[in-house]
């Protein structure tokens, strides 16, 4: 799965909950996730590990499966637009 699709799914979920990157970092603070890490994931600069994705999904109140499903759907949309 592309880093851009994962980042877009994370950003969409975060914004749909009215959270800033700082808010999400605060909610996931026990995992050591920083705002910069969230920025790098959302911008597609880095691909997060499964553990990191799980922690972010948990902080957003969704399952890892839902986060991955959203990313796959966004990747499919990008493929159709190309």
UniProtKB/TrEMBL annotation:
Occurrences of domain HTH cro/C1-type (ranges): 10-67
Entry keyword 4Fe-4S: no
SUPFAM superfamilies noted in UniProt: lambda repressor-like DNA-binding domains (SSF47413)
One GO CC term on file: cytosol
UniProtKB keywords: DNA-binding
InterPro entries in the cross-refs: Cro/C1-type_HTH, Lambda_DNA-bd_dom_sf, TransReg_Diox_bact_type
Transmembrane portions of the chain: none
Keyword DNA-binding attached: yes
Superkingdom assignment: Bacteria
SMART domains in the cross-refs: HTH_XRE
One Pfam family per UniProt: HTH_3
Gene Ontology molecular functions: DNA binding; DNA-binding transcription factor activity
Protein name: XRE family transcriptional regulator
């Amino acid at each position: 799965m592309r880093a851009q699709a994962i980042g877009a799914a994370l950003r969409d979920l975060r914004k749909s909950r009215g959270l800033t990157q700082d808010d999400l970092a605060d909610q996931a603070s026990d995992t050591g996730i920083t705002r910069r890490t969230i920025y790098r994931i959302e911008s597609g600069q880095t691909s997060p590990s499964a553990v990191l994705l799980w922690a972010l999904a948990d902080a957003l109140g969704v399952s890892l499966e839902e986060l991955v499903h959203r990313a796959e759907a966004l990747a499919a949309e990008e493929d159709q637009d190309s």
